[in-house]
């Protein structure tokens, strides 16, 4: 944090110096500067009144960073805000300033919540850019800023200047590419493991000493003296399968077989063997590239990453060359025989504690920030020497303390000495199992324990025998509720309790056991067992001295050797018992809260009319219907997921990843999905789809105030977790099958965001479902990647036609009962007649439910409704009318004024990111009701939702909140529209926008739904003038961004058809401006609409220079680009499309799409080895070259996968064209040794490769820019 603070100061100083040399204010106010310099009109509004006052009244040293940034960007003669110079991929002064400011606002100011490694990486990058800013200023103004540079360099970690420059350029490029730094590290981890596995399998298949028809197991029995010490039980079990192949073995097992079955040198000498030998390279590949250092060491240190990755490639080459010499095979032959995707890769990665594509192992504690390190007493208790195999497969020698634990285990284990004594006592006290099985007390025992009752009781454990003694009808013992069982004393009952407590202590708390402590424990156990036997003898008039003597002799002769497997199983049983108790308790508590305390979890009514009793009957269990869920990354796919598929995938369904992100627009049913899952879980008998789920943790992001999973569980399930030590909760959650539901990430408080990160790190093996709006998906995926996890992204697309009908029928049945069939049929028929007009309302569950409820109240009013805004307007008007009628009020105006006051509160809370009303808000609205002489309480209950249970947000027992984000956004818009109409204030002023800055762009994105409501309300009230339309468009289109184009189209597409004024306002937008040359992540349909409706121009080809539009998007979005590409072609514009391949399923569709757009340059962005292989196999080599984009950070390893794929496809005459000036020789040499021609061509863009499968010369260059024309392309 000290470094963070110091760098923050350096940022401010750098911006101050830059301002002092570059600012063109020269003592003038902003108003004077704008008038005298004739600058663009929007600059006048960029600065708010306070900032304008500060500029003329305070010295520059007292300006805050936000003001400094605005002056640099808008009043220093730099490029205009629309200029590409501000794009982060450009190495310009403008881009450096923007990057540093963005980093300061987004990350450095939230350093406390950022993992140390990530924070330090970002700080290093900021320092590099600060240095570049100072260098730019020095060059432009011919000044010496070396003193400030030294201050900046003091905070820089030890990295060479050449590295800093190279890395800064790479980082800058990556900021706008699909490959963020964390993603590249993740890709390198995965690729490294795949390559290692392939090489090891290839080596084993070519070098093994197995005779014909001889199995590995047979060979080991004859030639491996200590097989059980080398291979774990699980590995031995795998080897028993005669049909198993090395492709289906984990990396660690294949490596062990290389050492034992391939006739190589003694494996104990591998580590010290000479560099360049086969043994040395195999050892290095296993040790150096198979540890968790891959995630935290060299691969995360860009200074060494390339060397580290190339060194791995060198070892691979050594292995290939030596095996080729031994077997007299060429390199190509070895690669052709190399296995494809490992069927056991997930297990292989788990053996390294590395992330997999489905489930992710937890990072090692050393990888995590101190505050995020999981505290796991079980892990510490059962040391690695006891439970983990070393890499060699041999068990590490036990320490004396660990041997002492195992000795105690002999006494307390199932079937041990203590259990035998308790069985004797149970028999002497005439315990009756038959009576127990036939009575009600049998429920106290699990099904497994009831089965044990029919066997030998001496094989059971202490906990089971304790329950038998207490509940089994033993004579001479007090009743089960008697306090004597837990009251200290000399009673037999308390003696049994003490024995059980020692057993629990041994499992839960004992880490190591020194010899003196062991002897004390044995002595204590001996005294307890002797006391129990003596008291039993006295009670039953039996002489049990022989049993006492035998017990003491057994303890005296207690061996110090033990069965390690039974010891491990015993400890595991104890942990399972504790976890099971926790799970049962948590489920009961959740069921109780769901049924009796949290009525909102069951309630699914979208409105809150209190005078209609039927609304309270609209519950999730009665009306829920699945919406269609599809893979967000696959276009044209017919694969759909139901809720049951997500919870319990069928054999023919793709397995859902450990983290599933479900995106969907507001009102599509994300919260309802979470509620329904909880409903299924809280049934008397949980739904069969949840049979694999032991516990659900529900995190409603809008209400969260806890920042860690431990504190969250203690506050939400106090009966279960309240008395459990904080350090024990996370270990106990590792074994149960936990499903975490994170609902509404876009509504997350700061605490909820921290809690989300804690969940990712603390519960890596749990299934996680997180819902959010689409614009939040990139942030979520980034956090998931940073945690070393992978995810599947699904999207909710709305009701199917059948689902819509079922939902409507369910709703009508609840509301109108016997009349439901006729009314629902009329409503459905109406929807079918106007399906195109009502599509925006009927595809979403929320708006469909509102429209249906309005229909039930007044079908004529419902028929007038065509938009979401009209729907909310009519519902609000209808509710007020009913309330006025109940109150016998003649004047509608006071009630509407109260609604506007509610809108004011809604708007204030939106700016605070709050959905619930504070006590002050409630008082304010109550006083407003009194002033207007309206029934405030009824207005509250008519328009707001009341949480009557104890809220997580406050100690108050009554919390008023908006039912949904949509509702808060609508009321905010009503207030803003009222202010605009009455005071003629500009919308920009009301919203508080000054016209620039990264923060304002983010806020504008968040407030876009409010602006959409405002636009509709103005049009609805016939107050949408040409000036207002222009102002709204000017706000929304302040920047060229994916979300702004999409919002403008959504907001004005229909209005433009109906209003000439709106069409003219659109036509006036972007006058004299050109479309950005690089569009990443833009909706193609929105870009097409903007180009057709506005004056935005596209770069055109001139004689001197070719201009290109670069479109970057996922496969699914690229497949929608057809109309846009045709439009751009009519405008004489060349286009390059970068396609991020994320699924093998769409490759054939992409190839077909490329055939239809022959004049477009397509670049494939590949980062997955299996995608690389799939692409090579489907590519039409006879028709076109393959253009690949490979990020520099993953080039060495992905290059290997490229070569393997090309050669495995049996391709000949391969030529790879590139322009990497400093491409390592090892890659060139490797390509040439495989018969691949390798050619440097400067016209090929950096980070791209052009691959040909013909003998033709390199195609001619049409332009002097970067793109290549394929001579074979039609």
UniProtKB/TrEMBL annotation:
The lineage of its organism: Eukaryota, Metazoa, Ecdysozoa, Arthropoda, Crustacea. It comes from the Eukaryota. Coiled coil: none annotated. It comes from Petrolisthes manimaculis. Pfam families: NACHT. Residues 659-812 form the NACHT domain. InterPro entries: NACHT_NTPase (IPR007111), P-loop_NTPase (IPR027417). This is NACHT domain-containing protein.
């Amino acid at each position: 944090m000290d470094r963070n603070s110091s760098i923050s100061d350096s940022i401010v100083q750098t911006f101050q110096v830059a301002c002092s040399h570059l600012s063109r204010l020269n003592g003038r106010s902003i108003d004077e500067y704008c008038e005298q310099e004739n600058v663009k009109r929007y600059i006048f509004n960029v600065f708010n009144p306070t900032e304008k006052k500060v500029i003329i009244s305070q010295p520059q040293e007292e300006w805050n960073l936000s003001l400094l940034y605005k002056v640099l960007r808008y009043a220093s003669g730099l490029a205009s805000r629309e200029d590409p110079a501000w794009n982060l991929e450009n190495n310009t002064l403008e881009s450096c300033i923007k990057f540093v400011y963005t980093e300061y606002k987004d990350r450095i100011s939230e350093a406390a919540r950022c993992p140390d490694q990530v924070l330090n990486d970002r700080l290093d990058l900021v320092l590099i850019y600060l240095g570049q800013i100072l260098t730019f200023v020095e060059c432009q103004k011919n000044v010496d800023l070396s003193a400030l540079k030294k201050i900046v360099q003091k905070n820089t970690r030890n990295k060479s200047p050449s590295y800093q420059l190279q890395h800064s350029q790479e980082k800058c490029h990556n900021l706008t590419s699909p490959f963020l730094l964390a993603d590249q590290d993740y890709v390198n981890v995965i690729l490294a493991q795949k390559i290692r596995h392939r090489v090891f399998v290839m080596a084993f298949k070519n070098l093994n000493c197995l005779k014909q028809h001889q199995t590995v197991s047979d060979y080991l029995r004859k030639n491996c003296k200590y097989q059980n010490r080398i291979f774990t039980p699980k590995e031995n079990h795998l080897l028993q399968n005669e049909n198993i192949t090395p492709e289906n073995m984990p990396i660690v097992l294949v490596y062990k077989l290389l050492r034992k079955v391939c006739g190589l040198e003694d494996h104990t000498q591998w580590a010290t063997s000479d560099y360049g030998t086969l043994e040395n390279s195999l050892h290095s590949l296993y040790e150096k590239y198979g540890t968790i250092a891959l995630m935290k060491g060299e691969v995360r240190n860009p200074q060494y990453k390339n060397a580290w990755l190339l060194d791995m490639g060198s070892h691979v080459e050594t292995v290939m060359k030596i095996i080729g010499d031994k077997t007299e095979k060429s390199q190509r032959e070895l690669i052709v025989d190399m296995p494809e995707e490992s069927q056991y890769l997930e297990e292989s990665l788990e053996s390294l504690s590395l992330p997999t594509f489905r489930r992710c192992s937890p990072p090692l504690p050393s990888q995590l920030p101190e505050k995020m390190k999981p505290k796991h007493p079980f892990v510490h208790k059962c040391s690695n020497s006891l439970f983990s195999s070393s890499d060699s497969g041999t068990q590490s020698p036990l320490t004396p303390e660990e041997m002492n634990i195992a000795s105690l285990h002999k006494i307390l284990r199932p079937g041990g000495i203590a259990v035998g004594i308790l069985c004797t006592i149970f028999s002497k006290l005439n315990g009756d199992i038959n009576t127990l099985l036939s009575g009600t007390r049998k429920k106290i025992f699990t099904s497994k324990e009831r089965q044990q009752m029919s066997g030998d009781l001496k094989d059971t454990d202490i906990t089971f025998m304790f329950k038998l003694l207490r509940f089994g009808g033993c004579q001479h013992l007090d009743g089960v509720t008697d306090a004597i069982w837990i009251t200290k004393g000399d009673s037999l009952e308390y003696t049994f309790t003490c024995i059980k407590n020692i057993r629990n202590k041994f499992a839960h708390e004992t880490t190591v056991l020194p010899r003196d402590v062991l002897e004390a424990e044995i002595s204590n156990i001996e005294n307890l067992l002797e006391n129990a036997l003596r008291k039993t003898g006295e009670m039953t008039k039996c002489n049990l001295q022989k049993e006492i003597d035998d017990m003491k002799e057994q303890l005296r002769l207690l061996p110090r050797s033990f069965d390690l497997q039974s010891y491990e199983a015993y400890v595991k049983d104890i942990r399972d018992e504790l976890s099971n108790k926790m799970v049962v308790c948590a489920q009961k508590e959740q069921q109780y809260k769901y049924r009796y305390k949290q009525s909102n979890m069951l309630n699914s009514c979208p409105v809150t009319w209190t005078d209609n009793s039927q609304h309270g009957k609209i519950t999730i269990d009665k009306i829920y219907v699945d919406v269609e869920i599809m893979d967000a990354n696959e276009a044209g796919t017919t694969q759909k997921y139901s809720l049951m598929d997500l919870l319990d995938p069928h054999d023919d369904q793709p397995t859902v990843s450990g983290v599933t992100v479900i995106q969907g627009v507001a009102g599509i049913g994300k919260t309802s999905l979470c509620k329904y899952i909880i409903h299924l879980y809280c049934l008397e008998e949980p739904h069969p789809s949840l049979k694999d789920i032991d516990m659900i943790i529900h995190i409603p992001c809008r209400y969260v105030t806890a920042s860690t999973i431990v504190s969250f569980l203690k506050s939400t399930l106090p009966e279960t977790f309240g008395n459990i030590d904080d350090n024990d909760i996370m270990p106990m959650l590792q074994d149960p099958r936990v499903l975490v539901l994170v609902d509404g990430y876009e509504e997350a408080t700061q605490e909820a965001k921290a809690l989300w990160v804690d969940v990712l790190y603390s519960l890596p093996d749990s299934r996680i479902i997180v819902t959010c709006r689409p614009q939040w998906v990139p942030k979520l995926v980034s956090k998931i990647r940073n945690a070393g996890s992978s995810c599947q992204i699904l999207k909710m697309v709305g009701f199917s036609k059948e689902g819509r009908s079922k939902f409507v029928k369910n709703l009508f049945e609840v509301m109108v009962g016997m009349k439901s069939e006729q009314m629902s049929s009329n409503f459905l028929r109406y929807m079918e007649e106007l399906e195109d007009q009502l599509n925006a309302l009927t595809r979403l569950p929320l708006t469909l439910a509102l429209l249906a409820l309005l229909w039930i109240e007044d079908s004529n009013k419902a028929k007038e409704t065509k938009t979401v805004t009209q729907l909310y307007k009519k519902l609000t008007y209808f509710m007020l009318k009913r309330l006025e009628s109940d109150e016998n009020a003649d004047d509608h105006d006071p009630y509407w004024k109260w609604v506007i006051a509610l809108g004011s509160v809604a708007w204030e809370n939106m700016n605070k990111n709050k959905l619930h009303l504070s006590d002050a808000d409630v008082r304010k609205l109550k006083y407003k009701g009194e002033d207007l002489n309206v029934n405030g309480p009824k207005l509250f209950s008519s328009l707001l939702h009341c949480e009557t249970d104890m809220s997580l947000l406050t100690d108050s027992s009554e919390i008023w909140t908006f039912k949904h984000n949509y509702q808060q956004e609508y009321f905010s818009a009503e207030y803003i529209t009222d202010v605009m109409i009455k005071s003629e204030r500009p919308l920009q002023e009301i919203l508080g926008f000054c016209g620039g800055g990264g923060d304002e762009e983010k806020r504008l994105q968040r407030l876009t739904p409010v602006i959409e409501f405002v636009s509709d309300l103005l049009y609805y009230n016939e107050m949408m003038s040409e000036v207002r339309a222009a102002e709204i468009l000017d706000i929304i289109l302040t920047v060229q961004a994916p979300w702004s184009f999409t919002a403008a189209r959504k907001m004005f597409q229909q209005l433009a058809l109906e209003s000439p004024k709106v069409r003219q306002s659109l036509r006036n937008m972007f006058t004299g401006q050109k479309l950005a040359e690089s569009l990443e992540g833009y909706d193609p349909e929105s870009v097409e609409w903007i180009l057709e409706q506005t004056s935005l121009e596209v770069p055109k080809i001139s004689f001197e220079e070719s201009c290109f539009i670069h479109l970057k998007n996922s496969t699914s979005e690229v497949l929608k680009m057809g109309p846009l590409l045709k439009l751009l072609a009519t405008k004489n514009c060349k286009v390059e499309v970068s396609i991020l391949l994320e699924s093998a399923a769409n490759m054939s569709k992409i190839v077909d799409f490329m055939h239809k757009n022959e004049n477009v340059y397509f670049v494939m962005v590949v980062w997955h080895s299996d995608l690389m292989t799939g692409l090579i196999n489907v590519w039409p080599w006879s028709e076109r070259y393959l253009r690949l984009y490979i990020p520099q950070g993953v080039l060495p390893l992905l290059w290997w996968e490229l070569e393997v794929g090309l050669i495995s496809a049996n391709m000949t005459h391969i030529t790879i064209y590139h322009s990497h000036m400093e491409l390592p020789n090892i890659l060139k040499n490797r390509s040439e040794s495989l018969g691949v021609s390798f050619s440097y061509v400067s016209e090929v863009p950096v980070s791209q490769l052009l691959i040909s499968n013909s003998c033709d010369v390199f195609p001619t260059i049409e332009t002097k820019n970067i793109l290549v024309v394929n001579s074979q392309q039609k």
